[in-house]
Amino acid sequence: MRTYKVAIVGTGGIAAVHADNLARTGGRAEVVAACDVDQARLDNFADQHGIAGRYLSLTELLAEAKPDIVHLCTPPMMHIDQALECLAAGVHVLSEKPPALSLADFDRLETAQIQGGAQFSCVFQHRFGDASAAAQSLIGGGEFGRPLVARCDTLWYRPDTYWDLPWRGTWNAEGGGPTMGHGIHQFDLLLHLLGPWQEVTAIASRQARATSTEDLSAALVRFQNGTVATIINSLLSPRETSDIRIDCEFATVELSHLYGYATDNWTITPAPGHEDTVTGAWDTQPLERGSGHSAQFLAMYDALDAGRPLPAGADSARQTLELAAAIYASAFTGAPVRRGEIVPGHPFYAGMDGEGLGTRVLDSTAPAATSAA
Fold first, then answer.
1. What pLDDT score does 49 carry?
2. Is 109 helix (H, G, I), strand (E, B) or coil?
3. Three-class secondary structure of residue 63 per DSSP
4. Are 35 and 74 in contact (CB under 8 A)?
5. Where are the alpha helices (DSSP H) in the chain?
6. Domains and CATH numbers, the chain
7. Distance CA 211, CA 165 (A)
8. What does DSSP assign to residue 127?
9. Cα 262 to the center of its chain, rounded Å
10. Cα 289–292–293 angle (5° rounding)?
11. Cβ atoms within 10 A of the Cβ of 172, count?
12. Which of 253, 266, 280, 345 is deepest in the core (most CB within 10 A)?
């Protein structure tokens, strides 16, 4: 097993989560460098985590530190250009979400990966963990049966002060509100468990917060396998929770947590008459490792060791980003949106606000928040 040289770009709050989890990979990673435009913040972060290499520019870091993998922990609007620069240098990328602010920007990755010979992956840590793998393997199989109905809720709370950072709550810096920046983790896991989505009908609203984007979205999604699911993304919910429920023919699969889960956050309920089959199938799964960044990091290293595509790579990350775009497109046009419909030339291909349509719709439907936004 190889030890990979890792660099962290951006030293804000999420960077500390990366550094702490890298330290729990059992020597599989060596953090050789960090980068930030703020020298004092960079030095404080590097001192705290024992990082020798310190750079004020990504270009300099790539040339001198020569990492194997760069972790992008910068604000969302910086992810895609920084990823492209890393890939051009032949360096693998692990980017925080969202991977890009639009499908148009995201699709620039395909050529960059081919030309640079490196791979892109997005931080979707909820996919990783033994219970997630067990659920994915059992849903749709003989023991649990076909999935029929599901719900996916990201019910979080953010006060107005959350948007004091000037790049938060803007279409050109974050690409959207809780649909892009918060709920994306949870509905990415739903897609991981259920497979490709087919069609979505949605609403988005600015109910109460001083933001330019939505603070709430709700969607009805039909999956390719026939499952019908609801997805709610909220920043208005004082009792915060993240929940997934999938009702299969013979079992209900539930996950309730907040920002990360352990095995005991999952509940499996058999249908009457299927108790032994369902319980036995679940109990025989390896159920030790919970979700989290370190679980994804280790899966990434294993894939690189074996010469396999990176987990949560560009193809599957694009499916998640496409669902976010479709939620916005349906919400702001009032029409259902099918997978594959948002292509070059479509108003929601180049931006989640649909060439300004989202701003106009939110301004007309949420007068109480318009002046603050």
1. 98
2. helix
3. helix
4. no
5. 13-22, 39-49, 58-64, 79-88, 103-106, 109-116, 130-138, 171-174, 178-181, 184-194, 275-283, 293-306, 314-333, 357-365, 367-370
6. 4-124+295-311 (3.40.50.720), 127-291+319-367 (3.30.360.10)
7. 11
8. G
9. 18
10. 125
11. 11
12. 253
CA gyration radius, the chain: 21
| Cβ-contact 228, 197 below 8 angstroms | no
Exposed / middle / buried, residue 13 (Cβ in 10 Å: 0-12, 13-18, 19+): exposed
Q: What local confidence, expressed as pLDDT, does residue 290 receive? A: 85
The answer to whether the beta carbons of residues 260 and 151 sit under 8 Å apart is: no
Going by C-alpha positions, the residue among 124, 109, 104 that lies closest to residue 320 is 124
CA distance 359 to 277: 51
Q: Which residues contact 219 (CB under 8 A, 6 or more apart)?
A: 200, 201, 202, 203, 230, 231, 232, 327, 330, 331
Token code pair at residue 126: 């909820």
- 83-139, pLDDT tens digit by residue? 999 999 999 999 999 999 999 999 999 999 999 999 999 999 999 989 999 999 999
Report the candidate in 68, 196, 185 with the shortest Cα–Cα distance to residue 128.
185
The pLDDT of residue 366 is above 60: no
- Cα separation values, 3 from 55, 58, 76, 119, 248, Å: 22, 22, 28, 17, 41
Task: Quote the CA–CA distance of 171 and 316 in Å, as a whole number.
Answer: 23
For residue 147, say if its preceding peptide bond is cis, omega within 30 degrees of 0: no
> Order of strands across the sheet with 216-223?
266-270, 251-257, 236-248, 147-157, 228-234, 216-223, 197-205, 337-338
Across all residues in the chain, what is the average pLDDT? Answer: 96
The vertex-90 CA angle with 86 and 91, nearest 5°, equals 55
